[in-house]
Structures are given as C-alpha cells and as structure tokens.
Write a structure and sequence with these properties.
Layout lengths: L3 E7 L11 H10 L4 E7 L3 H9 L3 E10 L2 E6 L11 H10 L3 E4 L15 H4 L5 E6 L5 H13 L4 E7 L8 E4 L5 H8 L3 E3 L5 H16 L33
Parallel strand pairs: 1-2, 1-7, 2-3, 5-6, 6-7
Antiparallel strand pairs: 1-8, 3-4, 4-5, 8-9
Length: about 250
C-alpha cells in the first residue's frame, strides 16, 4: 500500500515570521512531492483555510496557538483557538473541535514559547510530540524531545517548521488516513525523515529576527496577512511583529 508523504508544522504569511503565501506553499509542496501538509500559522487558521481552498494538495487546517504555557499546535481544526489560555485549556479547546493537540519544538532554547517546564503537566493532554524540528540548531533539543516522547508513550512526529519558500526535506511517510483519529493511528507507525534547514534559511530568519528589534516596520514580505498588522511606516508598526525566537 502506498504511504502518504506528509509535512507537519508549516507557516504562511498569516504568521508574523513567514513570507510565504498559501499559493507559494502549495506550489512548493507540490513540486516536492508532498501528498498532505498541515498548515499551522501563529494564532490563526486563515492561512490554512486559504491553502485548503486553493486545492491541488490535501491540507490539514491547523494553528500554532500561543497558550499561556507555550506553543501548542492544533490539527484538524474548524475554528481558531484563542491565545493566552492555559496549556490544559488550549488542549481542551482543540479536543472540543475534534482536533489533535501537539507539542512543537518542546525543548527549543531559542524559542521563548517552548513548553519545557509545562510538559509534565500537559503530557496527559497531548496527542503527539515533535521529536525532531528541522529548524532546531541544537541537536540535544531534539534528543530531549525524543526521550520525553518515549518516556510518556506518545507518538512522535517530524516538524518541518517552515517559514520561507524553501521547504526542508523533513516529513513522515504515513498510512492513508481520513480524519483526526485515523491520522493519529497512522502517525504511530509512520516512518520519520529528518533534515535540517540550510544556512540560507537560517540567515534570512536571523535577519528577520534582528530587523524586528531595530526597524520601525516589518521586514518586507513577512506577516503581510497577519491579523492586526499595522501598515508599514505607521508609528509602532514594528511592535506588532516583535519576536524573541525563530519559529
């Protein structure tokens, strides 16, 4: 039986830190031979819904939610999950929609919104853990994530965490699934393919990170569809995209 090539954890320019439109994502993913992608913009499902409407490839509607305890990914969502709920409340809100709650980059030190200390409390409420993140520059972060995943008997997945038009070769081969429940079952037996983003990718993301700290407006092309973004050149425009992390 053919297995699906699935990428999980991808951003579009509905996220403040991405310059990739849904249309560009669909083109890049199609060229790379993906069968399915999970689009997970920061605190928004709009990019995922737009990508899904474009067609051409299967799209799972997701969101990387900024909970009070750190980032939590919801997959198979129907509506946006509001930020700033506790981690437990965020997982409950995801499950109320029939979705799955995932822990992205759980031990990443360069991401101030990683779950880290909250993980033991949240473990019973999570459906899967990102045991490898293509953007993590420090291998021990993924090692700790993998150890945590095994210790708690949770399914592991590879997170692409793409923000730019160059998609790393980080994905899973999974049995065919129809919904959230069968996706989770398929993930348990998935083959994980790991790859880091390249130097060019890191260079652009580091530039964006420091640009947000010093410039009065967002780096051109980034976060252009983000809800609440101020027009470039207006007072305080840079403040809506300030960030302390790369993903």
């Amino acid at each position: 039986m053919n297995r699906l090539k699935v990428a999980i954890h991808i951003h579009t320019h509905y996220s403040y830190d991405s310059n990739m439109s849904p249309a560009e994502l669909i083109r890049s993913a199609t060229r790379a031979g993906f069968d399915c992608i999970a689009v997970t913009d920061h605190d928004s499902v709009d990019g995922a819904l737009e990508a899904q409407a474009l067609g051409g490839i299967r799209v799972i509607v997701g969101e990387e939610v900024s909970s009070a305890d750190g980032h939590i990914i919801g997959l198979f969502l129907k509506d946006r999950i509001p930020p700033k709920l506790s981690g437990v409340e965020t997982c409950a809100a995801i499950h109320e929609q029939g979705g799955l709650a995932l822990a992205p980059h759980p031990f990443a030190v360069l991401c101030k919104n990683s779950l880290r200390e909250s993980l033991p409390l949240l473990a019973p409420h999570l459906d899967a853990v990102e045991s490898y993140n293509a953007q993590n520059p420090l291998p021990w972060e993924d090692l700790r994530a993998d150890q945590f995943t095994r210790a708690h008997g949770l399914p592991a997945y590879v997170g692409m965490d793409a923000h730019l038009r160059w998609l790393p070769s980080a994905y899973q081969r999974m049995d065919v699934f129809q919904d959230a429940a069968s996706f989770l079952e398929s993930l348990k037996t998935a083959d994980l393919y790991k790859s880091r983003v390249g130097f060019r990718y890191y260079s652009v993301m580091i530039l964006r990170h420091f640009w947000d700290k010093i410039a009065p407006r967002p780096l051109p092309g980034f976060g252009t569809k983000r809800t609440g973004r101020k027009p470039a050149g207006t007072p305080g425009a840079g403040s809506v995209v300030k960030a302390k992390h790369l993903g």
